[in-house]
């Protein structure tokens, strides 16, 4: 959904999506920041991403009908049951644009990934 223009910040990325989707992305971003306050924002594979201790934590992106979140295989595997209604392709969680975003689930996924990142310091 984001334009093909090369973006270098999450703010720039969010500006490339339709206005009605921007608050959803800001909400997801804020939820991630709250769950991982020491994480660093970046762009990875042309998507908003967060790193902790130099390691990938999680990323997300807007698509035509959903927002995809990518907590890598460990996050999707550990939360298999909780994310079953949002399951996308391998390592992908899809939140439909026409449904409420489960911010509490995002918090849990990110907290799980933070614990993993802290183990690998």
Structural summary, described in words:
This protein is of the alpha+beta class. The protein has one domain: Aspartate Aminotransferase, domain 1. 36% of the residues lie in helices and 23% in strands. The chain has 4 helices and 5 strands; from the N terminus they run H-H-E-E-E-E-H-E-H. It has a 5-stranded antiparallel sheet with strand order 1-2-3-4-5. The radius of gyration is 13 Å and the shape is globular. The mean pLDDT is 88.
Number of beta-strand segments: 5
Tertiary shape: globular
CATH architecture: Alpha-Beta Complex
Summarize model confidence as the mean pLDDT: 88
Structural class category:
alpha+beta
Please, how many domains? 1
User: Approximately what portion of the residues adopt beta-strand conformation?
Assistant: 15-25%
The CATH class: Alpha Beta
Give the count of helical stretches.
4
Distance from first to last alpha carbon: 35 Å
Q: Give helix % range.
A: 25-40%
Q: What's the Cα radius of gyration?
A: 13 Å
Name the quaternary structure: single chain
CATH fold-level topology = Aspartate Aminotransferase, domain 1
Largest sheet: 5 strands, antiparallel
* SSE succession: HHEEEEHEH
If strands are numbered along the chain, what order do they take across the biggest sheet?
Answer: 1-2-3-4-5
């Amino acid at each position: 959904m984001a334009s093909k223009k090369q973006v270098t910040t999450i703010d720039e990325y969010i500006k490339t999506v339709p206005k009605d989707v921007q608050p959803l992305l800001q909400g997801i971003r804020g939820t991630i920041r709250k769950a991982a306050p020491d994480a660093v924002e970046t762009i990875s594979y042309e998507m908003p991403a967060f790193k902790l201790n130099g390691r990938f934590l999680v990323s997300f992106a807007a698509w035509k009908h959903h927002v995809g979140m990518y907590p890598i295989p460990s996050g999707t595997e550990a939360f298999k049951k909780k994310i079953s209604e949002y399951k996308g392709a391998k390592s992908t969680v899809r939140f439909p644009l026409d449904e409420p975003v489960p911010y509490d689930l995002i918090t849990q996924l990110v907290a799980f990934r933070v614990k993993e990142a802290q183990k690998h310091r």
